[in-house]
Write a structure and sequence with these properties.
The chain is mostly helical. The protein has 4 helices and no strands.
Length: 150
């Protein structure tokens, strides 16, 4: 077990997050364009990508545990921070590459957060617009556009 496996796992995770970022853009466009079929497809694909991300995260944790036991690293929690802190003297070369990929992953996670915030805003606005439209069309009193008695 060597840090190259961890590096490979992080690269796969970076690619997974890149796919998620692209898909969230498609999802946002589907919502804005009111394209229900594209939205359903993007949600389905998003679920697949999220499962891949979860699977790779489990794999990364297993790799860190295996490396820690092989090199007798005192990791209380199999996190990247602990691995980097305790593995500096063993994996100097690999840690530079790992840090670069972690930076890329962090940027993609930030992009995902921003896209989710934008999607939430669009959905909230759409929901309030629909609610107000229904009130206007079938509301009570003289202000209603449709008379419910008819």
């Amino acid at each position: 077990m060597n840090p190259q496996l961890l590096l490979t796992s992080l690269k796969v995770q970076d690619e997974n997050l890149g796919s998620l970022v692209e898909l969230l853009e498609v999802k946002k466009n589907a919502v804005v364009q009111n394209n229900y079929a594209a939205l359903e497809l993007s949600i389905s694909e998003e679920q697949k990508i999220l499962k891949n991300i979860e699977r790779e995260e489990s794999n990364r944790i297993k790799i860190i545990k295996d490396i820690a036991s092989l090199y007798s690293l005192p990791l209380q929690v199999p996190s990247m921070e602990n691995f980097i802190l305790h593995g500096k003297k063993y994996f100097t070369k690999e840690l530079k590459d790992i840090e670069q990929i972690r930076k890329s992953i962090a940027e993609k996670i930030e992009t995902v957060k921003n896209a989710n915030t934008q999607l939430k805003s669009v959905v909230d606005f759409s929901s309030s617009l629909i609610r107000e439209t229904i009130k206007m069309i079938a509301g009570q009193g003289k202000r209603a556009l449709v008379n419910k008695r008819v």
